[in-house]
Specification:
By secondary structure, this protein is an alpha+beta fold. The protein is built from 3 helices and 5 strands, in the order βββββααα. It has a single domain, classed as Arc Repressor Mutant, subunit A (Orthogonal Bundle). 46% of the residues lie in helices and 18% in strands. The strands form 2 sheets. Strands 1-2-5 form a 3-stranded antiparallel sheet.
Length: 85
């Protein structure tokens, strides 16, 4: 479950219809940007390119950060890897 509260994106993993309040994610600006791209079903390479351009960081840094962030979302059960990405 995702909610925008006071300009921040808050993610709460829901398992068996119960929110896991021990695993709440509060997304910073980059995390919220990536979350929006994930919601738009952007490919991994598109996410990396968009981060690099939007936040003026080298592509290698954008890729490393994106992979780390997405892995943490996967570990929390908030996203699943698509076979198309």
């Amino acid at each position: 479950m995702a909610r925008e509260i006071a300009g921040e994106i808050i993610l709460v993993p829901v398992r068996n219809r119960v929110g896991d309040l021990d695993s709440i994610f509060t997304l910073n600006e980059v995390g919220a940007f990536v979350w929006g791209l994930i919601g738009a079903r952007a490919s991994g390479s598109h996410i990396v390119d968009a981060i690099s351009v939007e936040f003026d960081v080298p592509p290698a840094e954008a890729e490393r950060d994106a992979l780390e962030f997405i892995a943490s979302l996967e570990a929390a059960g908030l996203v699943e890897r698509s076979s198309q990405n």
